[in-house]
Amino acid sequence: MVQLIVIFILNTNLQIKNPPYFFVILRYQTNNLSRMPKKFYEENILKFTRNQNIADKHAKYLTGALIAVLVFLLLKLGSWLFDRTNTTETWQFMPETAVMAVELPELPRLWYKTDSLAIWNNLREIPYFEGLHGRFSLIDSLNYAGHDIEEFFKKKSVFASVHLTSNQEFDYIFYIPYKISESGLLKELMNEIKRRFSVKIDQREYHGITIYEVFQPDSDERFSYILHQNHLIGSFTPLLIEDVIRTVSDVSEENFVSGNMELFKLKSGKKQDGKIYLNMSRLPQILGTFTEKTVQEKLKSLTHLSNGFLADFSLSSRRISFLGKSVIMDDDDDNSNYLSVFKDQDPSEFESLTQFIPRRTALLFRWGFDNGEKLYNSLKAYRENNDRFQANFDKETFHEFGVNPTEIMESAEGEIALTVMENFDEMAADQLIFIRINDPRKVQGLMWQLAQNAAMDDAIFENYGDLRITRIDVPEIPQKMFGNLFGGFQKTWFSIINNYLILSNSVRGLKMLSDDLDKKETWAHLPKQTQMMELSDSKSNVCVKINVLRAWNTLTESLTPERRQFFEEFKRQILRFEFFTYQMTVKRQYYETHASLVHRMPQSFKGGNSKNMVRAHMNVLINKPIIPPIIVRNHHSKNDEVIIQDEYFNVYQIAHNGAKRWKTTVNGKIVSPIYQIDYYKNGKIQYLFATTKSLYLIDRLGQFVGGYPLTPMTPIPIDHLSVFDLDNLRNYKFALTDQAGNIRVYSKFRTPQEAWFPKPLSGTLVEAPRHIRVEGTDYILTVRGIGIVDALTITAKTHEEFPLDFGVPISNPAFLQLGDNPQNSYFTILTDEGELIKMALSGQIMGRNKLPRITETTDFSLCLSQPVENDYVIARHDGKTVTFLEKDGSEIFRKTFSTKAEKLPQYFSFGANTKIFTVTDQTLRKTWLYYSDGGMIYNKPLDSDMEIGLRYSDIDEVFEVYKNYGRKTEMLKIIKQ
Predict the structure, then answer these.
(1) CB atoms < 10 A from the CB of 192, how many?
(2) Residue 299: how many CB atoms within 10 A of its CB?
(3) What are the residues whose beta carbons fall under 8 Å from the beta carbon of 69, sequence distance 6 or more?
(4) How do residues 844-867 score in pLDDT, each as one tens digit?
(5) Which residues contact 273 (CB under 8 A, 6 or more apart)?
(6) Which 8-state DSSP code applies to residue 602?
(7) CB 756 within 8 A of CB 735
(8) Main-chain dihedrals φ then ψ at residue 735, nearest 5 degrees
(9) Which of 335, 465, 859, 894 has a CA that sits 20 to 30 A from residue 563's CA?
């Protein structure tokens, strides 16, 4: 273009005799003259420049033409600059009330990318997102109709903002910039939509700006939009468009930018798939639309997390990632932001803590720092600024009991973490707090002093294996030390393991942690959790990790009824998002923040289709099995293996690959579970079980342990076996019961325990006796078929308030829910009449619920969860129909079968979205397997003569089904859908 202007200036006498060439030259205005075709240049440009004798009378025309060209070029340049800079004005239209804003720089590319991702294909199973997909498909259809929509959105940032519209709802505003030259295209598109989809367009004036409303006559939904300063701004909530108009008309110029100035001072990295701008002060408002009022109060603390968050986000087949910065006030004396507590604190490594985090952890919240005392002082300053009442109350509490928490924090070394366990019963979720310390002896003394000063008499403690668990009778000790996020500790139990002080809100939490450590059921040994840890840096100042599957129960309990119904309806799709991770790290001049939402990948077997795929993995031919497959764990390989017994009383252990490890013969049918015990206390496992005649103990090579089998001197057949490990020190006691109700207890060295030799109970026991210890007191619980529940001491005495006689037959096992004292420890029984009775260990009846009987022959089963008895459901049998019920009697689902033959129900629980219900018909020799929504995990029943064994691998997301059919025992792998 510059060269052409020079030509016009140097050739002021140029006479244009052939006007079309002038326009041809203009077409080349953006190219170098050297790129013109040579012939064109010689025949036209040179010809015109050689003519030096043009009459003066034509000069005024040439001057006018030159001015016209320059004006034209300036107008084009101005239009181009206006189109280039216009998108930056979008922010001035965005109301200050926006909670969040999203910027999408290349919408067509993002759309085509998203359409191929597993994340989007999963979400499309939810009607809302399928509707959104349909709207984008509409855009595609307009493309094919001759309107270049893709070109319209290219190199153009589209914006959306999120706003609260009521206490329970929120909606979006969309901002689409366009060029002056594209206004005609917009008009054509609206006419095309109006023609093809039978919509009407109304218009009204508001503050001098026309609002257009697009709607279908048979629908209540309206899309309102305005065309303002080269922007199409629209929303499905008309009031939000009025907010936009008020924003652009407001003389005070208040908008999203003016309300978040600190946020816009941040610089993000290179744009990925989009940007997100988050106003933290308004975030609780949006989250509050999902939650109950009690939860909304707790959400208010999020307003103090930081001033805002700016991040680039990207999508992949596996996750949605956010990488950005958090806004923190720079003033050293400002303590209004929670994250400001970590100023000048170096982040610490996460690695050692993974050795302690249990598999069942639903949520982890961790601090990383280099100076514990300084962190605690900063935390106190923050609380003085934001919660003075709580801060003063805490000071008074610690002064009363004579312990200064600063002394504890002086020993804090690098990290403090809170873990919340999956909530699987009616008790509050177990919580554990880990504080890494450099002086365990000093901290042990300080915590013991606090426990002693708070106790009415002596501090209460309990030994569990090598662990000493001590109770502190001061409410909310962790909250008083670290803030509201560490609440929920009505009483606090503590113990020290290696260099960690561990606090729990229940004695159960510390006992289960000890068991998890023994079994190596912690994050350091779990591949899926290890993969999750690799998604973020090992060092951080603040870290949050949520296992969405294990947090599901806690999450849904917090939701409003309407939201809960939606989440339950689309539970399977939502729970395909497995993990959420968040971390913040203090850098030299900013607070780096990273978050990810991780989606599981669809699984498939090699060479096969992933849908409803079944593959036989183990296939063993023996004599006809007489007991269901019993799954055991190989303590070396950690693989699941199976023990089976055939009709000739041969017992086999079958390896995971189908190989027979050993075979031995016993003197009758196995009538008990197969317990895996550490008889020699050396980490090696032996197998304990009972037949109708004897007690057997077999080592891992299939050899009888010395002195076994043990055969009681009684002609009455054995029907149950229990193992008591009173102090978790592997000093086992074995309890055998016979069909007359007599209980005999032996030491592991086969020595009869005198008080129990035998302990006669009138009536056959429904299940094996169970041992629990609460507040240092031992209880042996028994349920008799004649309707009597008893609680005995370790010396076979009857506890006060027992026995309880309900006067009706009982055929079902009891469900036990262990608390911290006899008043909140419960067991639940289901009578043959269909009455569900809940009792406290102290003897009080806590509730009775009569389940409705459909017919006179209606029967009920209480199904304890497998492989761990931490939950139960109820199966109701009505002729051909089996209905599964929740604890409150509400229906889960029902199935009707072809025969009235007896059905054997089972219930397997592997987490919130992995609950499996099975029904076995021994007459038809079939077993059906269902998800909790009643859908089958495989499209037909499996051939099976009896109940099955089931395990779930959360690494491969595959069910392993162990079953017997004819002479064959096999294990099938079925992919989770």
Answers:
(1) 15
(2) 17
(3) 8, 26
(4) 999 999 999 888 889 999 999 999
(5) 104, 110, 113, 312, 313, 314, 315
(6) P
(7) yes
(8) -110, 120
(9) 894
Give the per-residue pLDDT at 613. 56
Strands of the sheet containing 881-885, edge to edge, are 891-896, 881-885, 872-878, 859-866, 903-909, 915-921, 926-930, 942-943
Cα–Cα distance between 95 and 246 in angstroms, integer?
Answer: 8
State the Cα–Cα distance between residues 106 and 174, nearest whole angstrom.
Answer: 15
The residue written with tokens 């930056």 in the block is 88
What are the Cα distances from residue 177, in Å, to 84, 188, 235, 258?
10, 16, 15, 21
For residue 285, how many C-alpha atoms fall within 13 Å in the half-sphere facing its CB?
18
Instruction: Report, as an integer, the average pLDDT of 766-775.
Output: 94
Type of residue at 754: E
**One-letter amino acid of 275:** K
| Per-position DSSP letters for 477-509, written without gaps between them | HHHHHH-GGG---SSEEEEEETTEEEEESSHHH
Closest by CA to 580, choosing from 617, 625, 622, 536, is 536
Cα–Cα distance, 810 to 763 (Å, whole number): 11
Q: From CA 975, how far away is CA 61, in angstroms rounded?
A: 83
Q: Which pLDDT score, from 0 to 100, does residue 136 have?
A: 58
Radius of gyration of the CA atoms of the chain, in A = 37
pLDDT tens digits, 208-244: 999 999 888 887 788 899 999 999 999 989 999 999 9
Q: How many residues can be counted in the chain?
A: 977
767/814 Cα distance (integer angstroms): 8
With beta carbons less than 8 A apart as the criterion, state whether 337 and 328 touch.
Answer: yes
Distance CA 108, CA 158 (A): 11
For the ranges 257-266, 310-319, 901-910, the one whose mean pLDDT is highest: 901-910
Nearest Cα to 722, choosing from 698, 749, 748?
748
Phi and psi for 916 in degrees, rounded to 5? -120, 135
- C-alpha separations of 256 from 67, 99, 138, 156, 162 in Å: 44, 9, 31, 20, 11
Tell whether the model's pLDDT for residue 66 goes beyond 60. Answer: no
pLDDT at position 607: 41
Structure tokens at 148: 């270049």
Question: How many Cβ atoms from other residues are within 10 Å of residue 691's Cβ?
Answer: 22
Which burial class, exposed, middle or buried, applies to 27 when counting CB atoms under 10 A from its CB (0-12, 13-18, 19+)?
A: exposed
- Rounded to the nearest integer, the mean pLDDT of the chain is 83
To the nearest 5 percent, what fractions of the chain are helix, strand and coil?
30, 35, 35
- As a dihedral over the C-alpha atoms of residue 883, residue 887, residue 888, residue 893, rounded to 10 degrees, the angle is -30
Q: Is the pLDDT of residue 190 over 80?
A: no
* Of 184, 274, 172, nearest in space to 227 by CA: 184
- Whole-angstrom Cα distance, residue 460 to residue 473? 9
DSSP string for residues in 892-904: EEEEE-S--S-EE
For the ranges 267-281, 680-694, 842-856, which has the lowest average pLDDT?
267-281
Beta strands in 411-538 (DSSP E): 412-421, 431-437, 461-464, 467-472, 492-497, 500-504
Please give the Cα distance from 181 to 185 (Å, whole number).
Answer: 8
Distance between CA 466 and CA 505 in Å, rounded?
Answer: 20
Please return the burial class of 321, using the count of CB atoms within 10 Å of its CB with bins 0-12, 13-18 and 19+.
Answer: buried
Farthest CA pair distance, the chain: 138
Q: pLDDT at position 835, please?
A: 95
CA 599 vs. chain centroid, Å, equals 10
Tokens of 25: 């030259």
Res 10 pLDDT > 90: no
| Matching residue, tokens 């190199």 | 155
Element (DSSP H or E) covering residue 780: strand 777-784
Report the DSSP pairing between strands 640-645 and 412-421.
unpaired
> Is 101 in a helix, a strand, or coil?
strand
Structure tokens at 75: 């107008």
CB 959 within 8 A of CB 916: yes
CB count in 10 Å sphere of residue 741: 21
